[in-house]
Write a structure and sequence with these properties.
The protein is built from six helices and nine strands. The chain is of the alpha+beta class. The chain has a single domain, classed as Porin (Beta Barrel), CATH 2.40.160.
């Protein structure tokens, strides 16, 4: 598929900004890894239901690349001391089930919901800007220092969902499928196992700790909003379906500073 080359091109682009500039030697590179639990919020379970939130938990990992402009002289003082460009390659997966009052009912509808299962398998690559409250040079000068930070970015997203049921004959029949996920004549499908591509907007906030001159630790909370409602394989029919899929991700990470 043609789009499979886009993430590689994007990552190389953001990792090599300024390659023809005399000031390139003053742009420092940092690489890192991160991982942690993912709370995927899609169309499984009731919105805001604590059982749904607590059980539909997955895991994600990622690698990061940072461009540090703090030691350059071709950018004005404030931006180079408080901003970095961050590029990330991320993968997360979550097993999903229906929970809540409707799924707990001892009737056909409850059985249909309890029998459904799904997975959200998501690969993301993209870039964005991070803002650091402390001056970057001040933070990097001494070990044992902390700095809060926040950021925003956009990712290209490849998702491969799984949506199914343990009931015989599978999804798509009135006997096996909850009405919300059963499309009628002329309606768009309400479930899909088709892989596809979309975009996500992501926001993050965290704390960075300077361990040594070359190494940092981070604790970070991320929110990703997807411009698709099929990331988890479900798109309920009806006015109750008001939002696309999104997720919270709490990560811990390690960063190595390259001179």
């Amino acid at each position: 598929m043609k789009f499979k080359h886009y993430p590689i091109v994007a990552f190389l682009f953001f990792s090599t900004i300024g390659i023809n500039s005399e000031a390139t030697a003053q742009i420092y590179h940092e690489v890192g890894i991160m991982g942690g639990p993912v709370s995927f919020r899609g169309d499984y379970g009731l919105r805001g239901d604590s059982e749904t939130i607590n059980n539909n938990i997955g895991f994600g990992v990622g690698i990061n690349h940072y461009l540090n402009f703090a030691y350059t002289d071709f950018i004005s003082q404030y931006p180079r001391q408080h901003f970095k460009v961050r590029s990330s390659l991320i993968y997360h997966t979550t097993s999903l089930n229906h929970y809540g009052a409707l799924a707990d009912k001892n009737n056909e509808a409850g059985l249909q919901l309890r029998s459904m299962f799904g997975e959200a398998n998501v690969l993301e690559i993209g870039s964005g800007i991070e803002y650091y409250l402390m001056r970057i040079r001040d933070f990097e000068r001494n070990s044992g220092t902390f700095t809060p930070y926040g950021g925003i970015g956009f990712n290209l997203v490849y998702y491969s969902p799984v949506a199914g049921t343990t009931l015989e004959d599978g999804l798509g029949l009135p006997e096996t499928t909850f009405p919300t996920f059963l499309a009628g004549p002329g309606e768009d499908p309400a479930f899909s196992n088709q892989s596809n591509v979309t975009i996500s907007a992501n926001f993050q906030a965290g704390i960075k700790y300077k361990v040594t001159r070359r190494s940092d630790l981070i604790a970070e909370l991320r929110w990703h909003y997807y411009f698709s409602d099929f990331v988890d394989g479900l798109k309920p029919i009806g006015p109750q379906n008001k939002y696309n899929d999104w997720m919270f991700w709490f990560t811990f990470g390690y960063i190595y500073n390259i001179d």
